[in-house]
Write a structure and sequence with these properties.
Shape of chain B: globular
Order of helices and strands of chain B: EEEEEEEEEEE
Number of strands of chain A: 11
Helix content of chain A: under 10%
Radius of gyration of chain A: 13 Å
Helix content of chain B: under 10%
Largest sheet of chain B: 7 strands, mixed
Strand content of chain A: over 45%
Oligomer: heterodimer
Distance between the termini of chain B: 37 Å
Largest interface: A-B, 25 and 28 residues
Chain lengths: 108, 113
């Protein structure tokens, strides 16, 4: 069974705009990790947020975690065409499960 | 430091054959995860190995199996291949601990014809 479920499935924005993606998960987790995937290749790790953290920043990325709602969001500020990719969230206990991802398209 | 490496990059097999995919984790990582990603879809959890033992498996038939070797590298075997097995197979590794990052390889593209 999947752990993370991303929303929306697809998102299209203009360069410079912010992009927000949401993730819901089903069971309790130790942490939640966000990844980017370009053109069907391997996943690149973006950020890990622990279950006792509420918000975390990394460059243009901001991740929030609400364990009471079992949800997380990923905000990419001042998006660039190079941010075009699929984004996945994975809930981690010991194993890691992912959702179907959000396909982000940033138009130049 | 070398990342997670997977081989082969591409694999073409005929229906009914067996496929073997390999994964070498990052040095020091003891856990290896396998995922299947059909075209345009999400990652489906296949198997988790840690310290040479299978710790958990996803909702896949028994013809999907694997093992982890003493050097923590891993092998995924798919028997009696079906057309629906065509997918990108991704391997990830992480070190021991509750809050450690997992790193992915570039995947093996398996095509069953």
């Amino acid at each position: 069974s999947q752990q993370g479920e991303e929303d929306p499935q697809a998102l299209s924005i203009q360069e410079g705009e912010n992009a927000t993606m949401n993730c819901s998960y089903k069971t309790s987790i130790n942490n939640l990790q966000w990844y980017r995937q370009n053109s069907g290749r391997g996943l690149v790790h973006l950020i890990l947020i622990r279950s006792n953290e509420r918000e975390k920043h990394s460059g243009r990325l901001r991740v929030t975690l609400d364990t009471s709602k079992k949800s997380s969001s990923l905000l990419i500020t001042a998006s660039r065409a190079a941010d075009t990719a699929s984004y996945f969230c994975g809930g981690s206990n010991n194993d890691m499960r992912f959702g179907a991802g959000t396909r982000l398209t940033v138009k130049p | 430091e070398a990342g997670v490496t997977q081989s082969p990059t591409h694999l073409i097999k005929t229906r009914g054959q067996q496929a073997t995919l390999r994964c070498s984790p990052i040095s020091g990582h003891t856990s290896v995860y396998w995922y299947q990603q059909a075209l345009g879809l999400g990652l489906q959890f296949l198997l988790w190995y840690d310290e040479g033992e299978e710790r958990n498996r996803g909702n896949f038939p028994p013809r999907f199996s694997g093992r982890q070797f003493p050097n923590y590298s891993s092998e995924l075997n798919v028997n009696a291949l079906e057309l629906e097995d065509s997918a990108l197979y991704l391997c990830a590794s992480r070190t021991r601990g509750l809050n450690t990052e997992a790193f992915f390889g570039q995947g093996t593209r398996l095509t069953v014809v």
